[in-house]
Amino acid sequence: MRTVLLFAGMAGLVLLEGLTGGWNTALGIVNMGLISAVMALGVNMQWGYAGLFNTGVVGFVAMGGLAPVLISMPPVTQAWANGAPRMAAALAVAVGVVALAVVLYRRLTGRTRVLAMLAVLIGGFFLYRALFDPAVAAIEAVNPAAAGYLGGLGLPVLLSWPVGGLLAAGAAWIIAKTALGLRSDYLAIATLGIGEIIVSVLKNEDWLARGVKNVVGIPRPVPYEVALQSDTDFLARAAGLGIDPVTASTVWVKLLYAGLFLVVLLALIWLMERALNSPWGRMMRAIRDNEVAAEAMGKHVTRRHLQIFVLGGAVLGLAGAMMITLDGQMTPGSYTPLRFTFLIWVMVILGGSGNNWGAVLGGMLVWYLWIKVEPWGNSLMGFVTSGMTDGSALKAHLLDSAAHMRLLTMGVILLVVLRFSPRGLIPEK
Amino acid sequence: MDLLNAIVALANFVLIPATAYGAQLALGALGVTIIYGILRFSNFAHGDTMAFGTATVILVTWGFQAMGIGLGPLPTALLALPVGIALTSLLVLGTDRAVYRFYRKQKAAPVILVIVSMGVMFIMNGLTRFLIGVDEINFDDGTRFIINARDFKEATGLAEGLALRSTQVITVVTAVLVVAVLFWFLNRTRTGKSMRAFSDNEDLALLSGINPERVVVYAWLIATALATIAGTLYGLDKTFKVFNYFQLLLPIFAAAIVGGLGSPVGAIAGGFLIAFSEVGVTYAWKKVAGYALPEGLEPDGLLQLLSTEYKFAVSFVILIAVLLFKPTGLFKGKSV
């Protein structure tokens, strides 16, 4: 009952936005809200089901965002011909070296182990760089202004969503193999580092996705507004409804996106609810609530943690791919931890950790607030400063700082929820 | 082969910058480790405490500059430092009262406190942006160089110049002074001893009549002072930018954990270890190698192991290696 009411309230907020601010902005909030809800579901799996504290969310989202570029952009054939074999060789060497080091670590003991591992890792690093550097130079030399990277496979962009999940799951697996089993706050710091590293790789490896030069014009799964505006059928229908064609086309495109995202979200929730109410879900909760007892009952805690961490990572990657598809461009510079890690955490905590519907509500609501707090802050500051003389330094400063209200509000929301309602808006049953 | 020039280049590009950076990290890591020792959680808001502290110091510095008060060749910020520490302490102690104390009374799990510190981080970040904006600010108004590269070249006749900026010397001198006072406080005073006792064994400390709230207040005061000093020194040495302080969180945590959480000596050692590895791995060794190697063997490439953007990867790899192979850190820390 409470869930229904809260979701009705959320829908009311969106309706209000649509009536006062226009349907275009309202649907914009809904679309990003749906994606945020998927991200919140991913974090909720890791934290709410298993109690794993992941502060590298931004890294998984960015990893997923790579997929639309790699899958749907047209390939740069010249770069493939010049650099791809060498690049493949370099990456194969890197994987081989790490694998060899792991084997040596398992097989040997004592000083021989240390020396052998050092020799393999250092020698391997230089071998890798010897192959890697010329490959990068060859790829980035091809038409650097417009391409300078390998490009993608030229496949439909929707295919990149599961691929984004797989990429992020791969990253999560590597992290989990090294960092799970550490204490909770060590895991937090380790994942914080991983997040930073993945983002800096995306920013600097221009051969992969052009780095900070950005990839724009990623193909869409839905028609372009311009195409709709010259489509006679669409124009006739818009005229029939009495809407002007420009508004009609933008709203229709956003509605199509919203439909796609909603399908993904509902499918995910259905799967997750099924999982949570199965013996597997009960086992996960048992492990979260008392690891020692669960271990004594013969449950393999670290392996289950690995499983849920990888699954949660995959959901985050899926959301990342969806977001890049919606934006139509990949801008690695925009991945900041405050926006993509800690904001997602506020969503999960506010919504109710451990409850999927809570995470979804938290995702939508916090995104709505994130968008709306800035204009509210502006009008608040306008009101506060209305008595001051124009041109005074304080007035200008206060008006400028309204933009920073967002972070302040999010912090206050997080602290208030943790203090007075630690189980969130929709508590776990 | 020209060893003298090699040594000068090494000192100029690696040793001096890494020492200054290491001192800044060590001060930051000391703050993290003290909070961990007493309150038993990893304070994610530490980077933003540094940023807030530095922002107040900058504001006070501007005030002093406007009044015409200065320290001559030294940056005015040093004079503003005590005021900045006092103001930041007020905010931090207020946060402890309003936020952390509730969870301490509840004996909440450390991970809850970490999440709470995330909320505090948001608020402090917002407050700092509110106070001073997001732009880069350079507030160093002292003499820039103690040794100028060109003067050094003229005086010694070497091909390589050696520049020693005054902020680097100030950083190291201040850090040494602060650490000396801190260790004197922890080892010689009654309050310091009760803090160490509390950190070693909480129950035993409570039984011997140590007031936990008092210990906590002192821990916050020390951590705030260290954070403000570290932040100001970092800002003097480079420039002040809110986001950079948030990113310092990772190397600082790495330093504290590598040294052993809860161990002050470890935090200092960890700070320098991280700083030297970061600078060493991201520095292009071409110049030094060119001087140090015999004629004809000069390298063609830059000899840079990783580009500067990957400096976080360095602290991260060290962190993971230590956690996997020696989880309590190089100097035996604690793990709750």
Describe the structure.
The complex is a heterodimer of chains A (429) and B (336). Chain A folds into two domains: 2-75 and 151-420, ABC transporter involved in vitamin B12 uptake, BtuC, CATH 1.10.3470; 76-150. Chain A is 77% helix and 1% strand. Chain A has helices at residues 2-21, 23-49, 57-72, 77-107, 110-140, 160-179, 184-204, 206-209, 225-229, 232-241, 245-276, 279-289, 291-296, 301-327, 337-351, 356-384, 393-401, 405-420, and strands spanning 215-216, 329-330. Chain A has a two-stranded antiparallel sheet with strand order 1-2. In chain A, α1 crosses α16 (356-384), α15 (337-351) crosses α16 and α16 (356-384) packs across α18 (405-420). Chain A starts with a helix and ends in a 9-residue tail after the last helix. A two-stranded antiparallel ribbon of chain B has the order 1-2. Chain B is 73% helix and 1% strand. Chain B has a single domain (3-325), classed as ABC transporter involved in vitamin B12 uptake, BtuC (Orthogonal Bundle). Chain B has 336 residues and is mainly α. The interface between A and B is large, with 46 and 50 residues.
Assembly annotation: heterodimer
Q: What's the arrangement of strands in the largest beta sheet of chain A?
A: 1-2
CATH class of chain B: Mainly Alpha
Uncertain runs of chain B are none
DSSP strand tally of chain A: 2
Q: Examine the secondary-structure arrangement and name the CATH architecture of chain B.
A: Orthogonal Bundle
Q: What is the string of helix and strand elements of chain B?
A: HHHHEHEHHHHHHHHH
Rounded radius of gyration of chain A (Å): 24 Å
Q: Which chain pair shows the most residues in contact?
A: A-B, 46 and 50 residues
Helix- and strand-based class of chain B? mainly alpha
Distance between the termini of chain B: 53 Å
CATH architectural group of the largest domain in chain A? Orthogonal Bundle
SSE string of chain A, helices as H and strands as E: HHHHHHHHEHHHHHHEHHHH
Number of helices of chain A: 18
Transmembrane segments (chain B): 6-39, 51-71, 77-99, 111-132, 168-186, 215-236, 305-325
InterPro entries (chain B): ABC_transp_permease, BCAA_transport_permease
Pfam family, one (chain B): BPD_transp_2
Protein name (chain B): Branched-chain amino acid ABC transporter permease
